[in-house]
Amino acid sequence: MTRWSQSAWEAALPVYRQILTLPFVSELADGTLSRERFAFYLGQDSLYLDVYSRVLAHTASRLGRKDHVESFLRFALDGVEVERAMHSVFLQGHKPAEMTPTCLLYTSVLRAAATSPVEVEAASVLPCFWIYQEVGRSILSRADLASNPYAQWISTYADPTFAASTSRAIDICDELADAATDDIRRAMTDIFVRCTKMEWLFWHSAYSLEKWKI
Fold first, then answer.
1. Residue 118 vs residues 46, 54, 91: alpha-carbon distances, Å
2. Three-state DSSP class for residue 130
């Protein structure tokens, strides 16, 4: 039987490939990304993570198996805190006052999943693990860390703790999908692809320094 994660990744693969060609990702890898765009991205990411950590904790509260609960609580308390620590280094505690339209849209999609079956809510947070890990591997494979001004940030992609958390999140989603109906499995895939598109849009909006038009 094909694991849910395999079919979900295949469904999202065209979007992932387009993420790798985004100017933000390419310029981050070769070190030419402007400081303004990088800071803009980190500021919005810090606002996003405030919501994301709460969604992880909410998902944990709905899961049935104790080991699943423990893992999602650990994701919320440990994994996200590591990223926040990086933000404190680069942003020095300064956060933007308002989410961009894209950041608000992405976090709204995650929050809305709270009213769906827990399997779907769990699948909604998976791209932030999995897409980041794969994009990070791609960046690491072509970045010259000795000269890249974002080397410290890029190096976090190689963190074995993050890789372990990603693997665990995938496994949990597969275990949930194994016990789910076909309708729920399809809904899990739909939101996984949708949130992968949100990842594309997030990087794209940072590069364009997105503003509210009104």
1. 25, 14, 34
2. helix
Homologous superfamily (CATH) of 4-142+150-207 is Heme oxygenase-like (1.20.910.10)
What's the confidence (pLDDT) of residue 181? 97
Taken in order 85, 89, 92, 94, the sign of the CA dihedral is negative
DSSP class of residue 64 equals S
Map tokens 């985004």 to a residue: 22
Instruction: Report the pLDDT value the prediction gives residue 75, as an integer from 0 to 100.
Output: 93
pLDDT in the model for residue 87: 66
Q: From the CB of residue 25, how many other CB atoms can be counted at a distance below 10 Å?
A: 19
The dihedral sign for the CA sequence 152, 156, 158, 161: positive
User: What is the rounded CA–CA span in Å between residue 19 and residue 39?
Assistant: 19
| Burial (0-12, 13-18, 19+ Cβ within 10 Å), 181 | exposed
Per-domain residue ranges for the chain? Answer: 4-142+150-207
pLDDT along the chain (214 residues), means of 10: 94 98 97 94 90 95 98 86 69 81 98 97 97 92 92 82 92 98 98 98 98 95
- The DSSP secondary-structure symbol of 31 reads T
Contact in structure between 64 and 141 (CB atoms under 8 Å):
no
